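Intended use. Records like the one below are meant for learning the mapping from a protein sequence to its folded structure. Do not use them to infer anything beyond what is encoded.
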Amino acid sequence: MGVILKKMLSVAEKKWSYIQIPSKKVSEFPEKFNLYYGDKIFSAYINKAHRVVSKQLFLELGLRIGSIVTIEKNDDKYSITFKPGLKNSM
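Structure written out for the chain above:
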């Protein structure tokens, strides 16, 4: 399937450790799923506010305000990549 979400993280997303999904894209995600980053696996879920929630993901990958996050789906596997954001926005 390829890229299903690409976005820049906002201040609120970083602060509360979530990735907001546009309403049009919500149907492309299951309620609970794993996100793969290299050899790491992060449990995630979609909450009622249409957000990908995984505190572990933010803590271990060091996602920051302004990070460009890309989520791809290949078969039934969801993977995440990112480009670092602002250095002073931990």
